[in-house]
Design a protein that fits this description.
Elements lengths: L3 E5 L5 H8 L3 E5 L4 H17 L21 H9 L8 E4 L21 H13 L3 E6 L2 H4 L1 H16 L2 E9 L10 E9 H8 L48 H5 L21 H4 L41 H7 L14 H10 L3 H19 L1
Helix pairs in contact: 1-12, 3-4, 7-12
C-alpha cells in the first residue's frame, strides 16, 4: 500500500525525495519562495523523468500560499478533492534560524520560530494519521527552546497523538557531512499502540523504532588533520571512503562534467591558494579535507565551503552531492546562485530522509496488519 503524504515548507523537496524513495506518494506540496518553487519543479521533474516516470505535465508545487493563509479544509480539498483517505501523513521542516546557533535565539516568538506553532496548529486541524516534523537540534538542546518544544508536543498529545523525538546525524547514515537534525514523529495513538502491541502512556517516548545507523560513532574515527593546499594527502585506512568529501567530489565521476557542475561563486582572493586543506577553524573561507566529512552545509552571502584541492568554492552540483541528492536532480539556469545554495543547505540530506521514511513505512505496516 502506498500511503499519501502532504508536504509543508517543501523547499527543494529533499525530504519529499527521501519519502518517495521509501514508497510514499507525496501528493500535495506547499512552498511560497519563488526561487524554491522553480527549483523544486525543475529538480523533481528531472529526477522523476530519470526513473522513467512519464507525466503529462511537469512536477510542480501544489500551493504557493504562506501557511498562515491556509486552512485545513482547503488543504484537504486540494490534496484529496475533499475526501480524506483512511491513512495519510504530513511532513515538513518549519524555518529553524530562531532555534539555532546561527540565529539570534528568538525561539517560538521569532518570525521564523512562530511558524512551528502555525505548523503544529495545522497538524491538529488536519488530523493526519502520522506526521514528521524536522528542525535543528537546538530546538531540543537549548533549555529555553526545549520548553517551547514541550508545549507543542503536549498540544499534539492532547489531540490524540503518540509522540517520539530524536536527534539524528546524517554522517552516521552514510552522508559525508556532519549534520544533526531533530525529528519529531507522531502517530495517532491507536496506530502506534497497534504497531507495538501495547498501550502507551500519555508522555511516553522512546517507543518508535528509529532507523539504525550504518556508521554509528563515525565522528570518533581517526580523521586526518589539515594539509598544505596543493598536496595529495593519503586516506587513513580506518576511514570509510563513503563518509569523506572525496566520495562526493571524485569517486563517482567528475561533478564538473554534470549539470550544475560549473556553477560556483568565483570572486578573486589570494586565500583560495593559502588556506590549508581541512582548515575549517575560521568563520569564513573554510576549506574541506578530501578525506574528512564536511561540516554542516549552511551557506550564505557567497560563503560556500572551499574545494579541497581546487582554488575555488564548491559548485552547485558538489553541494548537492554533499547533501546526497541524486545527480539526476537538476536545477534550472534561471535561479540565482545565492538562491540555489540557500535551497540546498535548507534541505534534509536525501539519504537521511530515506532512512527515516523507511522506518515510518515499516511502522505503519506493522500498525495496520
Amino acid at each position: 500500500m502506498v500511503f499519501p503524504v502532504l508536504s509543508f515548507f517543501t523547499g527543494g523537496g529533499f525530504l519529499d525525495l527521501g519519502f518517495t524513495q521509501a514508497e510514499f506518494s507525496v501528493c500535495w506540496t506547499n512552498e511560497n519562495c519563488p526561487a524554491f518553487i522553480d527549483g523544486y519543479g525543475a529538480g523533481m521533474s528531472a529526477w522523476f523523468s530519470s526513473l522513467g516516470m512519464q507525466y503529462t505535465t511537469n512536477i510542480a508545487i501544489s500551493n504557493s500560499s504562506n501557511i498562515c493563509e491556509l486552512s485545513a479544509k482547503l488543504v484537504i480539498k486540494e490534496a484529496f478533492c475533499g475526501l480524506r483517505p483512511n491513512i495519510f501523513g504530513v511532513i515538513g521542516g518549519p524555518p529553524c534560524p530562531d532555534f539555532s546557533n546561527g540565529g539570534i535565539h528568538a525561539g517560538g516568538d521569532g518570525t521564523n520560530g512562530s511558524l512551528t506553532t502555525v505548523f503544529v496548529d495545522m497538524l491538529c486541524a488536519l488530523r493526519p494519521s502520522f506526521f514528521v516534523i524536522e528542525n535543528v537540534p537546538g530546538l531540543y538542546r537549548f533549555h529555553k527552546h526545549r520548553e517551547f518544544l514541550k508545549k507543542k508536543i503536549h498540544q499534539l498529545q492532547r489531540n490524540g497523538y503518540a509522540i517520539d523525538y530524536n536527534v539524528l546525524n546524517a554522517l552516521e547514515f552514510g552522508v559525508p557531512q556532519d549534520r544533526e537534525r531533530l525529528f519529531v514523529v507522531g502517530f495517532k495513538r491507536s496506530l502506534a499502540q497497534n504497531a507495538i502491541s501495547r498501550k502507551l502512556a500519555q508522555d511516553e517516548h522512546g517507543w518508535f523504532p528509529w532507523p539504525k545507523e550504518t556508521h554509528a560513532g563515525a565522528k570518533q574515527l581517526p580523521w586526518p588533520k589539515s594539509s598544505p593546499f596543493g598536496q595529495e594527502p593519503s586516506k587513513p585506512a580506518e576511514i570509510p571512503l563513503k563518509l569523506t568529501v572525496y566520495s562526493a567530489l571524485a569517486s563517482n565521476g567528475d561533478p564538473e562534467k554534470l549539470a550544475n557542475g560549473g556553477e560556483y561563486f568565483n570572486p578573486y582572493s589570494s586565500k583560495f591558494l593559502e588556506i590549508k586543506e581541512g582548515d575549517v577553524s575560521r568563520k569564513s573561507f573554510k576549506r574541506l579535507h578530501r578525506y574528512r566529512f564536511s561540516p554542516t552545509a549552511w551557506y550564505g552571502n557567497q560563503e560556500v565551503h572551499l574545494h579541497p584541492w581546487k582554488a575555488r568554492r564548491l559548485s552547485v552540483r558538489e553541494a548537492l552531492r554533499i547533501q546526497s541528492v541524486p545527480d539526476e536532480y537538476i536545477l534550472p539556469g534561471n535561479i540565482s546562485l545565492s538562491a540555489k545554495f540557500k535551497m540546498i543547505c535548507n534541505g534534509v540530506p536525501c539519504i537521511m530522509a530515506f532512512n527515516l521514511a523507511s522506518a515510518v513505512q515499516c511502522f505503519l505496516k506493522q500498525a495496520i496488519l
